[in-house]
Every structure is written in structure tokens, then in C-alpha cells.
Amino acid sequence: MKRMDVSEQRDAAMQPDATGQRGAFAKPSGAEEEQRAMLRRPFLGALDENAANVDRLLERSVDLIKRPFVVQKEKGIHACVYYTDGLARADEIETMLTSLLSFTDELLRERETLSAEELLERLLLNYSAREARTTEDGIEAILSGDALLLVDGTPAGLIVGTRGWQMRAISEPATEPVVRGPRDGFTENLRTNTAIVRRRIRDPNLRIDGMQIGTRSKTDVNIAYLKGVVKEGLVEEVKRRLERIRIDAVLESGYIEELIEDAPRTLFVTIQSTERPDKVAAAILEGRVAVFVDNTPFVLIMPTFFWQYMQASDDYYARYWVGSFFRIIRYISFVLSLTLTPVYVMLVSFHHEMIPTSLALTIASGRAVVPFPVLLEALLMEIAFELMREAGLRMPKPIGQAVSIVGSLIIGQAAVQAGLVSPFMVIIVAVTGIASFAIPSYAASFSIRLLRFPLLVAAGTLGLLGFAVVFFAFIIHALSLRSFGESYLAPASPFRPQDQKDIILRLPWWSVEQRPSFAQDERRQAEDTRPEPPTG
Length: 536
What we know:
Strand content: 5-15%
Largest sheet: 5 strands, antiparallel
Number of strands: 12
Shape: elongated
Order of helices and strands: HHHEEHHEHEEHEEHHEHEEHHHHHHHEE
Radius of gyration: 30 Å
Helix content: 40-55%
Low-confidence stretches: 1-24
Strand order of the largest sheet: 1-2-4-5-3
Number of helices: 17
């Protein structure tokens, strides 16, 4: 029997079977079928039956609160409210119940029951409320932080907006700090994140569409784009890929990133993630789509191009020549991070004649007592560097900084004195590591570090031939990548002259008159906006 790889298994799990379900969700057990039937059951006018159905579904979780109360004692009208402790604001519920009990007597003088419309229009005017026709709607509202109100004789449930859980305050993103620019960053609250972007783009054409992903987590996902500017067909493609996801839970945007990217096996990052609202707003204004996922501060941007990972927010807030200079520094850092160690190993192992004589003698004297081949020495140093970096990252911040300092100074010096590594190798690996940290995107930096290892092995075993073969294989692979229909190396390949103003260099704003060529509305600003001194 042929064994399916990961992507084939994922696609097979998404294909519907004869029952209309998909993959692992195709054959529910008897208990699951009974639960689904209970969820689909509509709310009726009998409070006891409605409440019993909700109770059977929620059972006895200690954080799920049920509060029965009497609406009208003379006419025997009872009600109850359900909410989740910690997700709903108890004071808001108390105020809502007080308001409800204060005005029901007047409405019930000439009638025996209250309709859902009357409750919404006359008693719950000060609250964000809506009807819940089925038990599933009510259960979902309770678990999302809203309150579910059931009234005897009312053939519908009422969902009252009472969400109010504790959440992290807005702060500067730890992974993307800037010297000049906004200091706010996304949080784990979805609506807070979309509001931050809405503040930056006060355009009625900014659309935010919503959906839920995850059969058990029911994670809220929002898709943000600028109508009339976004690439034609991009929104539909993003929604199509999101709707194909069949998974029990989405706990972070990384789940979605892996399930919708064009090339799941590549080491290159083809979907950008960021914590910075200004970066998301800029991407939307360029015609891209942003995907917000609840419970995570990382927002996905698509399509993504390789050059974006060399761009920092500071580039656009400082003078253009300053931004261009530091962007060139980052490109140099990218080249050093990817090739410096492999080139050193290649030259020392196979091509001594390419090294100046004095430098070759210095390297040879340092390696005289090292017992390992240069390739093994480089691999040991690279792994040791990654080990120290990972240890410093995972430990508490004060301890992590101490571990990094101890590892880089004491262990490195001790390894040289013990003759395990050469001083020149320590310098090479240190410069390579520092260069990788200069790349603004952590995900792209990590991918580059991984790409360095096959390049290092090829250079250390086959010399210049192996280095050239693997290096050009990387380039060919990058040329073949796509991000939601766009070439990963665009606008360099295919070459688009009008899009070259923000790739290697950051030209001044007054010269960037157009958006990227894939946007529907390419005009960004009026022509001839270059500032000039006053005449006369």
C-alpha cells in the first residue's frame, strides 16, 4: 500500500466522504450524534425544556453559572440566565437583570408572555443583544463570554453582550522593537487588534470579514482588506483556503499558516506574521490581505515576498537615506549569515590558494592543535551557538542574558585554550550569528540559519562545486515559490520596473507614487509631490 506524505494526508482529510463529512469527522459516535441533535434543537416556549437541554450539554462545569429567577410571581413566569464565570462581567449581568425585573410588570399587565422582539426593543435597549434560535447559538454565546437569557413563554433565547475578561494591555512588541515609530502592538484580543488597525485606516472601504475555524475551539478568525485596492481574487482565494481547514482547534495563527501556505515543505517563509499594527496597515494599503486570529498577537499577511523580511518599520519613519543605508546593512547581514561559515570551511578545506599567504599562515597556526576536521569543527561550533541561543531564549530574561554572556565569553575562551576549536572559527561563527540577528523578522532569521547547514555540509565535502550546486539550488527553489499566486521573488523575478523603489533601497515618499503592481488601484498619491522651497 502506498504511504501518503503529510500534504497528501492533509488533503485526504479535507475531502468529503459519502456522508458529506470530512476526514476524521466522517463517523461520529452515538454520543456525538446525540449531542449534535441536542445542539440543533430550537428554543421553544417552555423554560423547563430549554433549560434542561442546556444543562445536559453543559453538565456540571464549576465555571458555568446558571441563575434562575422569577420575572412575574402572580402569573408564574420564570427565567434563568447562563454565563461563564471569568469571561462575562458579573456587574453587567446584575444591571441587566435589575433593568429587566423593573420594567416587566408594565408589559405583563395585559399579556401572559413576552416575545423576543419586545424584550429586545423595550427592555434590553441599553445592551448589545440578539436572538438565539437554536441551542447551539446559545451554547456558543455562553462559552464566548456572553450571557444567555431564557424566559418562560418566549420561544427564543436572548444573547446579551457581557464579555469582559482580563487581558494583556497594549505594549510594544518584544520581537519587533523600533527606534522611531509607534509603540503599540497587537494583543491576544481579536477585537482590540482589529480596532487598532481601524484607527489607522479610517476608510469605509476597509472590510473585516469573520468566520470560525476549529470544531471544538471555534476560534474567531477575521480577514481584513481594502475594497477596491486589494489584489483581484485574493480575498476569495484566502477565504477558500481557510474554509478548507478541518481541525479540532486553532490555538495560534501558526496553525493556519501551515494549513494555507503554497509550499508546506519549503524552509522559506511564504506568509509573513507580525505583531506590529503599522506593518499590517501598510500591507492592507498596498493591496494585501491580513488574517487576524483570536488569542494570538501575531497577524498573518499575504501575499508575501522575500524582500519584505529585509525591511524594518524604522526604514519608513527615518530619512530615506538612513533607511536605505541600514537596509543595505541587512542585505549584507543576510549574505554573511548564509555563506560566511560555508565559505570559510570551503577555503580552508579545499582552496588554500585563494587565501592570502599571511592569512593562511595565521589560520594554520590557530588550527595546529585542533583535533577535528574543519567541517566537524564548524558544525560543533554552530550547534553550540544555537544551543546557547535557545537556552538564553527559553530561560527567564535576567538568567537568559547571563547564560548568553557566559556561553559567548567563558565557554568560547575555554574551548580555544583547550585546543578544541581555533580562534578564527570562533570569530567566524560569532560574526555569522550576529549577522543573523540583524534580520528584522525572527521567522526569516531562523529559516536562514537552517539553510546554512546544508550549504555548510556541501561546501565542506565537495568544496566550491558543492557550495555552488546547493547555493544555486536554493535560488532555483526560491524562484519556483509562490505566495497566493505571486512570485516569491517579485518584483525582481519577474522584473517589474515600477516596483523597484522599495526593494534594495527605500526611495523618498514623494517619489513613490504607485502601489505594487498587483493592487487594483495602483495610484498612491498625486503626481509631482516633491517638496520645493517657496519662490519669490
